[in-house]
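## Example record

The block below lists the input lines for one assembly entry, exactly as stored, with component labels intact.
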Amino acid sequence: MSGRAGLLDPAALGEDLARSARARSVLGAAGAAQWLRERAAANAFHVERIPFSKLEGWSFDSVTGNLGHRSGRFFTVEGVSVTTDHGPVRQWSQPILLQPEIGVLGVLMRRFDGVLHCLVQAKSEPGDPVAVQLSPTVQATRSNFTKVHGGSGIPYLEFFLGSEGGTRTVVDVLQSEQGAWFYRKQNRNMVTLTDRDVPVEPGFRWMSLGEIQRLMTVDHLVNMDLRSVLACLPYTAGESPPEGGFARALDASMRPDAPAARSLPEVLSWLTDRRARIDIVTRTIPLAQVRGWTRTDEVIQRDDGRHFRIIAASVSATNREVRRWSQPLLQPTGRGLVALFVRRRRGVLHLLLQARAEAGTTAVAELAPTVQCDEHSYSALGTAPAFLREVRELTPGQIRYDTLQSEEGGRFSDATNRYVIAEMPPGWQEEPPAGFCWVTVHQAAALLRHGHYLNVQARTLIGGLYALWAGGFSPVAVAS
Amino acid sequence: MSGRAGLLDPAALGEDLARSARARSVLGAAGAAQWLRERAAANAFHVERIPFSKLEGWSFDSVTGNLGHRSGRFFTVEGVSVTTDHGPVRQWSQPILLQPEIGVLGVLMRRFDGVLHCLVQAKSEPGDPVAVQLSPTVQATRSNFTKVHGGSGIPYLEFFLGSEGGTRTVVDVLQSEQGAWFYRKQNRNMVTLTDRDVPVEPGFRWMSLGEIQRLMTVDHLVNMDLRSVLACLPYTAGESPPEGGFARALDASMRPDAPAARSLPEVLSWLTDRRARIDIVTRTIPLAQVRGWTRTDEVIQRDDGRHFRIIAASVSATNREVRRWSQPLLQPTGRGLVALFVRRRRGVLHLLLQARAEAGTTAVAELAPTVQCDEHSYSALGTAPAFLREVRELTPGQIRYDTLQSEEGGRFSDATNRYVIAEMPPGWQEEPPAGFCWVTVHQAAALLRHGHYLNVQARTLIGGLYALWAGGFSPVAVAS
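Predicted structure tokens for the full assembly:
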């Protein structure tokens, strides 16, 4: 056990978080954009695609064909074979990233003028589509903090793994990452609250919780790790629901006493049923045994060009622990679409989640947004996932959130998803298909106290709902 | 979603369960023993050890050496390699059972004279050390109910997977099984409550919840699956704690408002910390690549004879879906020891659990009893697990529960553990070592609403506590 001073009273904490999220900003959002522009200019970050043979420290194993680092750490590119009775394709193999070690994604909080602020970092990752994004205070693999790559110390790590006094734990849970690309990957999502003065290192800045939450409505401004961590915050809606239909329904949905379509034990029983019924056997195989994919010195890709490819990149940075390195990256071949359908039921907003099994999912299936797909690959398959047609037929008046966000730029190159939250009319899909379930925001938040219930895409969209809620639904005027 | 009528009010259910568990039995316990003796006599069940070459339908793969069934279902014997920084051995490989499909362990409940009863089965399994044991109403792999082995229908399955009317879900959760022997195995633990008249098939019998709970103090009477399912029941202690120090402390420990050494979020944060810090990489490998083990036609065993062996058996039965079959079994080389240390803190019983990582654990580590080991193998290692010395030094006055129980006889042969609950003095291990944590019974029960928190051995001992609590600590006079 660390020397941290334990946890806060949950009810008081939830209300405190909610009050802070809706408080007016101490620092203007425009100031944040300006600061990010400055950080981008200061970071001479250069990424160049290279052939695999030019990778430093990385090589293909002569027997298995797996791509790994000579230290045996970081991650490897291996193969996975899948046999299932779920989804349109019943048997396949594919490359997949293996990263068994559990990293820390940590956000440090402190109160200024009574409002909770987060210490965020302007961070560049080689695969990011923009120069810098807002990131957690600490974003470190175990390889980072055990110094495998000879990097310097990780600032602020002592607030998460150490025994820094005056620090309390707000969030501490292992959450999964992309099951289609990572084999059973999980990271430790943490938020700690300190009452100490904390020196602000270059590249870091205190931003109010509400400000960050609201910036999640802007394209490519908040990185995946920060979105994931903040989605796990135990918000409790306050006493006064705002005016307005959608806003009031969202606020009601965050309350513990919200009348839900199903009780939480019923939701868990439904998920247990889905997990038990989906027949899926996944096992890692040598990358050399993956069928239908071809490796050249430039790329590993499917013969039909679908889904994603593995490439190599050389990276030069001034703001990283190591100033120059090279590494493999997974690059999707198209933009993804992730949509959450919501509707009001007895004045309470409900979210339509699906139980989704992927090659790298640890617990058979996790709860995912209503639609999560790679449209390009599906069109080639001649089939479409449930509710994709409904996404295409959405009218502007139904769309509550529509933002481009990128996934972890340390592993993925240009992995951009369009994230949509759309409101469907009352009564729509009262009894959804077997693989889908209506839940309240409060129920989703209760499940986020535990790992492996809500997938990383669902966490981004829970964050999207909190962004709408925190912003009072006013547009945020920031150029990224 | 099934057509079941949803769940019951949790608070009322918990009290109802508790009242039933402590109610005097409608049927005498002596009657149950007599019934089991009759069932044992009626079941001409014959198990004979055979060489692998005599197995019907099972064979070793010529490339991998894995042992599997020609249908591709049931289970396989493969290898697993482990690299870790946890425990006395840092790198090893071993055979392990793979059974990716999720089975159903289902207990059907009904109220008689206001007291909840369970429909139990007197079931024989080839590896059981006794002729018959009390088993759940349904104990079926997916291979069973999809008829891979051509068996007949599973009685009562419609109360769990079907849409049998008048049935409500009490428990429905995926729980893990032995992580040292199974690779990431989980089964669906279910309890459903019906208000219908249910025909009682031969070999089945209604027994009151309290009667079954109390019979857990008798050696080899309640099988692992029934122990596991009943441990997941959401008991809530009633209004009147019994007299007596230990009894009162146990009762207090089952209450939601019991003052705990750590809050539940703190316990979860501690477990997250352990899971994140334990560096363990496990991966399945071909059985032929397992080092330090030798396969003959008779046995697969470690060259030093430790831990367990894989054998083959021919089975003839009259009370199974298939009347004659052969199969591999995993046979431990010695009896295991599983001990839970408890102590009172502010009048509330606390349980000392450890975060334990095993080769087949899905979620890095699960909560296990204070001591869980194979004494024979440890003595050869020249090291001892934490608190084993304290188990050896226990005095009779400290021992609250001491029972031999066997593990799943469908996969394991003569796998017997001595299960002990022992009370330590107040103040003992106020600050336990980093890998250990004090929890209340109510906290353990709350964690059992979710999978992969309490391992199967811990579930047996939670059941042991419920047995003591249900029995009012009077000895149960039953010969098994």
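The radius of gyration of chain B is 22 Å. The CA atoms of residues 214 and 467 of chain B lie 5 Å apart.
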